[in-house]
Amino acid sequence: MKCIHIGLLCVQNRAVDRPTMAEVDFMLISETDLPSPKEPPYSFPALSDKSEFPPLRCSNNNVTLTSVEGR
């Protein structure tokens, strides 16, 4: 769980929010409390039974556009 938590910190959207390798090393060897990762910049909306249209499942991070579609 600790490695997953640190991994989430390492993939923050903004580079200034990510820990340095020295900080990662310190987090791995220490028993201190870890900072909370910020909410991801994109996520899938919750599916609702009341929606009239099928949900659009895609993410846009201003670098690439990914659409999830069946084959």
UniProtKB/TrEMBL annotation:
What protein am I looking at?
S-locus receptor kinase C-terminal domain-containing protein
